[in-house]
Description:
Oligomer: single chain
Pfam family, one: Fer4_7
Organism: Clostridium boliviensis
Order of helices and strands: EHEEHEHEHHHEHEEHE
Number of helices: 8
Keywords: 4Fe-4S, Iron, Iron-sulfur, Metal-binding
Protein name: Ferredoxin
Function: Ferredoxins are iron-sulfur proteins that transfer electrons in a wide variety of metabolic reactions.
Shape: globular
Amino acid sequence: MLIRKPIIIYYFSGTGNTLLLVKKIKEVFEKQKYSVTLRKISTSETVELEDDCHLGIVVPVAIESTFPIVWDFVKNLPEGNNRSVFLADTMESFSGGIIGPMKKVLTAKGYQCIGACEFKMATSMQMTEKKAEIGKQKNEAAFLQAEKYVQSLIDGSAKWNRIPVLSDLMRLVSRGHFIWRITSKTIRIDDPLCIRCRVCEKHCPVHAIQFTDEGMKIQHDQCISCMRCVNYCPKNAFRVGGKQLVQKKNVNVNEL
């Protein structure tokens, strides 16, 4: 049984899917009379945690692992001192390089890893209306799965498995910045459509978009391809691989 004390959930959400799941997890915990606080994962060099609380981490999968901003957050966590921690991740189809490596890092920091669960949700790169409809169905199924996962955390039946060699090798793929630069370079701004509103600049989690004399520019060395700019541009002025996406605005961009 999960001891009834406050739960702090740190989350990162590029386009809103993960935040929707976070809200669902919070709702289910609160129905069971747990107190839940949500906090955004940021690039801060320090992370504050109250002394007597459980920790939740909810993040998206990216390149079969997760974004550098998430790994930086985990690196900056304080020592665990046997604090309970659970993980949830969202993905379109497959991961492999997050659950095992995350458990390895957190265990080394002294956290008690009580459960991890992966949720298939809508893609952040919706190329067609059909993809968008499939995504809605995936999300509904994920919310039902979240109810069962939270219950398993509460009753102690949740698992956090680790496959050392395979998961560690998959984590290596996303460890360097080279792969992120390659994916970032597929993102372009269609300048004639851009109205210089600077929404993308304001909400980029790693400050990779800047306003210049030549318009909005993506700094590909910083970009992590989270697709927030692509999905929340009011003029849909971004292109991925030369294609315009069907935008997905699941939440208010200020919540991300």
